[in-house]
Design goal:
about 190 residues, alpha+beta, 5-stranded antiparallel beta sheet, two-stranded antiparallel sheet
Length: about 190
């Protein structure tokens, strides 16, 4: 009987000590799940905040969107630059799908500019879809700059409105140009034609 009282009291005390720890751990797990879901929606991966100081942190690669994919029948090709969703100032494919085809007009120099500069360049491409022919849409970042310009406008054999675009990017004194023609589809999206 004496041993029973001792073990009961011991378990009771251990329960008092561990219960707040377990409750805290449960809250931490719930918070980490919530943060993880939010990060997943943004395509990010973050380490849990409440790690033990002796814990070994294994850095997982950041989840990025595939460079070659299709969204709403729009082929997205990003062989250069940063791999991320959206286009220009749009941060989700669902908002940017009208202009995603412009990823097919690529420049190797995009590897050398940061994501913010790449988004400025893409925003210039979006603006060039409604700008006057010959009007340069320029952009500038700390160490890079460029422009996008509509050089021709017309209608193709299918009656679609088409534009030919010229773009130029300068990074660290190196300049690269690219050209491409895009036609406005019936659903409101632009499609690159060869």
């Amino acid at each position: 009987m004496k041993n029973f009282k001792f073990s009961f009291i011991t378990f009771f005390i251990i329960g008092l000590v561990l219960n707040p720890i377990a409750a805290t751990a449960k809250v931490d797990r719930a918070n980490n799940r919530t943060e993880s879901r939010q990060d997943d929606r943004r395509g990010e991966h973050r380490e849990p905040k409440n790690l033990h100081r002796n814990a070994v942190i294994r850095h997982k690669p950041k989840v990025v969107v595939a460079r070659h994919r299709s969204f709403r029948n729009v082929v997205i090709v990003r062989p250069h630059g940063h791999a991320y969703i959206g286009y220009g100032s749009y941060y989700h494919d669902n908002e940017a799908w009208k202009w995603l085809a412009f990823t097919a007009i690529t420049l190797k120099v995009l590897d050398n500019i940061n994501e913010e500069a790449q988004r400025k360049h893409e925003s210039a491409q979006v603006s060039a879809t409604t700008a006057n022919v010959g009007e340069k849409i320029t952009w500038h970042d700390s160490d890079s700059s460029g422009y996008v310009m509509t050089t021709k406008e017309g209608t193709n054999a299918n009656g679609l409105s088409c534009r030919e675009f010229q773009q130029e990017i300068t990074v660290g004194g190196k300049t690269e140009q690219a050209y491409g023609t895009a036609c406005l589809q019936a659903d409101g999206a632009w499609k690159i034609i060869t």
